[in-house]
Amino acid sequence: MRFLITAGPTREPLDPVRYLSNRSSGKMGCALASAALEAGHEVVLVSGPVALEPPPGAQITRVETARQMFEAVRDQISGCEAAIFCAAVADYRPVSVAGQKIKKTGERLVLELERTEDILGSARSIFGFRGFLAGFAAETTNLLEHAHDKLRRKGCDLVIANDVSRAGIGFDSAENEVILCLPGAREIPLPRQTKAGLARAIIAFITETHPPQTPPSPQ
Ligand code: PMT
User: Fold this and answer.
1) Euclidean distance between CA atoms 13 and 95, whole angstroms
2) Whose CA is nearest to atom 24 of ligand 1?
């Protein structure tokens, strides 16, 4: 199978030297890419700015912003049979980007933000993707409720629920623990382990339960 995997954070510029971002290291997304390659699949990796080297053998597209990630996914998803959206994409970006470094003036500075592109939410509705679609849900409250809601609203086959309120798992950690949320309110917990181990289990689950049935969507 050919997998499209997104990884890492996005950076939304405020001025030439500052940006809004988050603590995603890209470890989980790179682990998924490595696990898919190890299992003999092809991988298209769309990655935000991370310090990690991408796994050898992946076709890599590096992006910075949510808009660039949206465009890279839009351009490459049609040739893939499965997509896993692991990136921590900014939900909002500054409405305007200052041309020069913002100077310290008053005691407060108010930023106006606007919504970014919903890349996962566009996979079915805008990109016309018909392959296996997996998203993540990184939540600090009501984990499973939000995960099942995302599964339904975004037309996913799988949402990987990730409790990011707990120390030692989630963002920028070596280990993770997730629950696979599936249609029909089914749930499969995957116990705490290295991100590499978890990634192997997720790729095995996808390939064993959903062997490719549909040809890639038309270019
Ligand atoms: O990178 P690491 O340090 O290893 O950390 C791994 C991780 C915690 C980032 C990863 O396991 C994880 O949970 N990724 C999802 C992060 C996230 O931002 O989740 P979310 O619940 O905000 O978004 C839901 C889904 O929509 C995700 O699949 C996300 O990629 C996607 N999304 C979100 C916003 C947006 N504008 N477009 C999107 O496609």
Assistant:
1) 10
2) 137
Cite the active site residues: 22
Each residue's pLDDT tens digit, 45-95: 999 999 999 999 999 999 999 999 999 999 999 999 999 999 999 999 999
Ligand 1 atom nearest 150 alpha carbon: 24
Burial class (CB in 10 A: 0-12, 13-18, 19+), 168: exposed
Q: How far is it, in rounded angstroms, from Cα 15 to Cα 12?
A: 9
Domains of the chain, earliest start first: 2-92+115-209 (3.40.50.10300)
